[in-house]
Structures are given as C-alpha cells and as structure tokens.
Amino acid sequence: MTSASKTRLHIGAIVFPEIDQMDLTGPFEVFSALPDTTFHLLWKEISPIRDMKGLILTPTSTFGQAPRLDLLLVPGGWGQEALMDDEAVLGFIRAQAADARYTMSVCTGSLICGAAGLLRGVKATTHWSAHHLLKYFGAIPVDARVVVDGKHVSAAGVTSGIDGALRAAALLTDERTAQLIQLFMEYAPEPPFEGGTPQTAPAELVEAARVFTRHIGDARLATAQRIAIRLGINPN
Fold first, then answer.
1. What span, in angstroms and rounded, lies between the C-alpha atoms of 21 and 18?
2. How far apart are CA 148 and CA 140, in angstroms?
3. 1 part of a folded domain
4. What is the mean pLDDT of each run of 10 residues along the chain (236 residues)?
5. Is the dihedral of CA 221, 226, 229, 231 positive or negative?
6. Residue 164 structural domain
7. 163 within 8 A of 115, measured Cβ to Cβ
8. Catalytic sites, residue numbers
9. Is the backbone of residue 179 left (phi > 0), alpha (psi -120 to 50) or beta?
10. What is the pTM of this model?
11. How many domains does the chain have?
C-alpha cells in the first residue's frame, strides 16, 4: 500500500462479482460529494465486474495499488459467499482496517468483515435475513438501521447504506457537511408502502422473501458456522 495525502480524504470500496451495486452506489453518492476526497473502487484486478443483476462496474485500482484509506467500504450481495475464505480479500480488509479511521459495512458486507475478524466484541447490524449470523463472528447484534461502534460503522440492508454513509461523512468531516450532502441529494424518504422491514411487512410477504433467500441463507449459515470454528468463537 502506498501512503495517502495527509490533507485529502481517501475512501475505498471493495467491488466484486455479484456485488449488490446499491450497497456501493448509495454510499458512493454521499462520499463522492465530500470535499477534497478521492473514491477508489478496489479489486484484485482492473477488469469489468457484473453485479448480481448484471450491472457492469469497473475497478479503478488493484488492492496493491490502493493508498492507505481513511474509510474502507465493504458492500454485500450474493457474491459475498465467495469472499468468506478468500485470504487476498480478507487480508486486504484487515490491513486497511488497522490504519483506517473507519471501516464501514453495508448489508451482508458485515459478514465479510466478520470473516476477516473485525467484529469480535463489536456492535453491528446487517440485512435482516442474515442478522442471526452476526453472533458467529463474535459480534454483538443490534437491530438498527445504522450502528457505530468505535471504528466500525455498519448499515443494515441495501438502502441503509445511504444512512450509514451520511453518518460516516459526519464523522470524517462534520455534521454540517453531511447535512448539506443530504440536502443536495434530497434524501427524505417517503416509501410508498409500510413494508420495508419484517416488523412492518405483511407476514405473507415476509415468508415469501424468506423462501426466495432460503438457498443463499442456508449457505451463509453453513459458512458462518465453519468460520466461527476457525476463529475460535462460540456463538452460544
């Protein structure tokens, strides 16, 4: 890793095959508006990557080219499973997190951070479908849209990445700057339906969503249980 400028903020996000692009692009909209900031899209190689629904994203730097970051963003998505034993990814996360002011996870990016060993004793959240897995990484699960615990900022599912990024922007700069970004984004959600969480959605829809995610959910559980053994964590 090269040394970053002392005056310019460097924010980097890991981008990977089958990422959920909104876990990345929501926070990007916020962080790219911060003054004197460079945003890096990071992967093992610089070549186009398809997100979980086919959107093409292109990394700007390899891991080896990345500067020392002020904030590392770890998104989630179906491709998260393939990274849980990928030491090139996990090692990069650990190395950057050691020096970064903050590490931020969105959605199931928290599971990747957990596999890297960053969540031991840390309060954290993630997408509701994976929330029960946090304990396997030694985390203290919190049912909240955004959780800040020391150097770690975690956002729950997908759209909450915008909320988390605004919180992180205030931590990196000041609240006025974050509020100005929120205003320019006109971020004032008025969802058309009261069903954005399992607590507010009709039971039939919650069950349908659970059925839809059951395959990846079973795989995530098996992986979390295996990694808990590797990390020496007793989730019970």
1. 8
2. 12
3. no
4. 62 98 98 98 97 97 98 98 98 98 98 98 98 98 98 97 98 98 97 94 96 94 97 94
5. negative
6. 9-231
7. no
8. 107
9. alpha
10. 0.95
11. 1
